[in-house]
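Why do we bother with holo predictions? Because pocket geometry can differ from the apo form. Keep that in mind while you read this record for S-adenosylmethionine.
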Amino acid sequence: MGNFKVKDHYFDKAKRENYLARSIYKLEEIDQRYKVLKPGMQVVDLGYYPGSWIQYTSKVIGDEGRVIGIDIQEVNTKLSGVKNVRIYQKDIFDISDLAQLEVSQAFDCVLSDMAPSTTGVQSLDQIRSLNLVESVFALLPKFLLPGGNFVIKVFDSQNAQNYLKEQKNLFNEFHYLKPKSTRSVSKEFFVIGKNFKA
Ligand SMILES: C[S@@+](CC[C@H](N)C(=O)[O-])C[C@H]1O[C@@H](n2cnc3c(N)ncnc32)[C@H](O)[C@@H]1O
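The structure, written out:
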């Protein structure tokens, strides 16, 4: 019962505030707590669709900043026309060179709310999810500038915990957060890395 209430509250709020998804409130809470986004930043949002994180990021980074969204889903035309936003329909693992995103250097911040398609078999879903997380960490040297910030969604498991422990030295600060708007039954949480050491 409680979970449905949570869903309704944030779903309605997102609708009222013209956000494309309720996930906006996860990034908002992460950013208010850990200040991952700043005006002027160049940001990449991996798995952006439908685009509420893009909407939030676009506002925070302002006219001097830019956010690039990548998703395997068709480009969301509701986002076209926003000045500091560019979106691509691509699998992020097909990007071998940042020139494919028409940028000349890595980003100040990498966001990933990506999730694998789930099977309902918990052990299999956990493995897929961890594989995805590991693949995104492997992209960081290419995508993230030294000193940059990182946010990634993770599905909890013992293996995920073990893996993350080994990664925390990549950043000066490493935090875990389960945002209030996450359904309480959900096993997802977010990892926030600040100040990438490269
Ligand atoms: C939970 S949704 C993102 C919601 C988004 N943060 C928002 O606020 O609107 C996750 C997205 O990740 C995308 N995705 C998963 N694997 C991907 C991949 N390899 N490359 C690009 N996008 C991917 C999915 O297509 C899906 O749209």
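Residues 2-196 form a domain with the Rossmann fold fold (CATH 3.40.50.150).
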